[in-house]
Ketoreductase domain-containing protein (Blastococcus xanthinilyticus), 265 residues
Amino acid sequence: MTAPSPSPERKKQPMAPSPVVLVTGASSGIGRACVEAFLAQGARVVAAARRSDRLEDLRSQHGDAVLPVSLDVRDRAQVDEVLGSLPEGWSPVDVLVNNAGLARGKTPLHKDDPDDWDQMLDTNVRGLLNVSGAVLPGMVERGSGHVINIGSNAGREVYPGGTVYCATKAAVERITRGMRMDVLGSGVKISEVDPGMVETEFSEVRFHGDKEAAAAVYDGVTPLAAADIANVVTWVADQPPHVVIADVLVYPLDQAGSGKIARRK
């Protein structure tokens, strides 16, 4: 009986590298939760924020899967320099989560501190543009990539004491829609996730560190957690190539709009 001839060896296909996700405002809240959620899916995450000590804490927990990057999104020159010189293996960016943002103050416009306006405009609008401007051209050139902008239900309506904040988040919505049109046909996806009430450091920052005022925002309500929004963000990013989740509005059960809250007391 003739011995069977050995079967030809199959060529081993190289494993595709894990996708690279860039998350801004990654040191806390929704940003940090997004870092954790993408890591759980096997991605490598560039975690960008101003508070570098918190970023190092992320790296100590997750090792080489996280690249901490000290970055102020308001500084365009710094954004271009840092994101234009990411280490080998951390570029190109496959998914950008524009999360960095804040609210400052909750007084009528005529009583506002103009410095608060500047912080919100520079972070929520210019910061998003700066980072998108640094990452999006490469995505368009490659014909692939996904930008997910974190907006707010405040971008869809206005409430007393939130005039400028609501305006900045409305700008995020307009920028997102326009960006989607600008890249149409390129293979790049553009999405927006708009959270309602989420319990993070958001209110504490808004009230300039007043913990009592911040806690009162969530009194009698079970708000969303940062992880809830991160789950939505990763779901948006995980759709098939031909599917774009254009925008998602996410509320806790007891919210139906800005100021429309059922407090269970």
